[in-house]
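Annex B. Sample input.
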Amino acid sequence: MNYRQLITALIFFVLFCPWIPVDAQWIRINGLENKFIKTWLIHDNTIYAGGHWSALYRSTDRGTTWSKIPLSSRPADTILALAGNRSFVFAGTNGWGLYRTSNRGDSWSQTNGPRSGGWAIGSLVSHDTTIFAASFRVWRSTDHGNSWMDWSSGLPSPPLSHIQGLAFDGSRLFAALDFQQGVYLSPADNPSWKPVGLTGMWDNLLAAIDTNVFAGTSSGVHLYSGSGTTWLPRNNGLPSGSKVYALVAVRRTLFVGVAGGVYKSENLGQSWQQVNDPNIAGLSVYALGATETDLLAATNNGSWRRSLSEVTSVEDIGQVPQHFHLYQNYPNPFNPSTEIRYQASEVSHVSLKVYDVLGREVATLVDGEVEAGHHRVQWNAEGLPSGVYFYRLEAGSFVRTKRMVFVR
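Annex B, continued. Sample output.
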């Protein structure tokens, strides 16, 4: 590289680097250090984090700062589950029943049921004004928790009916039982539970994407076949024999937490990819959640966040974006082609160009008016040398640049 090329490269980096985001990694969440978080909830622009020893924290600025909020005077309360509907946030505890708040956690009241005390409420599912709460039985409320009905007909008797997870697929309710009792299914509007398999496994967790119901178990991830008692293993790409500690569906992407970090699947579990970096690789991930912009992970070494735009490529189909955004290309590194995605919140003239490290333009991918919505562009680097390239999106006052690597 001669002197003129060096000066050109320096000018390029001065102009472009301020627009290159630094969120393509896991970032520690300040304020939750040394806190064992077991569950997350995002509700009404507020993030809640619940865990051991009455650990219940709240952030109203997208996770930048946190404050501890009181749930009860019992210091040993563990927050096992959180859920919210239009009027309330609910907190299930270990041994003291279910609490609710209507003022973002400033004050809490204990509900009359399920069991005001002595019951561990380990899972909650909220749908419109209906909420299901699970302990050794399933309870249902249609009036924001003022009154409850036992929704357990068909389930085994305690203690074999200890429920570790609930999932709702739009019409059916699934319950994962402890003590290797497997998974049970019931219509959501009529308590008539029946076993649907997956017996002989421990620590089952549940999540649903539309009508696809997944179980995270002591031996990986399984997908319910849709009928009978058949569950299909979905572990291609996961570490062999992985125990799933956390399972969450974000839009149409499934995330799992295991001993060794976080993995994702964007094809209903057919294959998995790790979304780790040196900050989180090797940690055990015990709880996962997501805000509108970030994936949240609670580990054995604090809690972390990572931009969803860096780890997902599935958009909310049919919804008009609220803002412009440039996503990380995928795959990255790539050979020789990659996909670049961006979203536009309004009709706009868009320029999307690719540059080499010297700032020389090597490709124009978009240069014209585009409609509001989600857009995908393929770029083939065939004929170019391996190395680092930058792609830059300009749309009105919105300007973003991201880095990608071409490896032959």
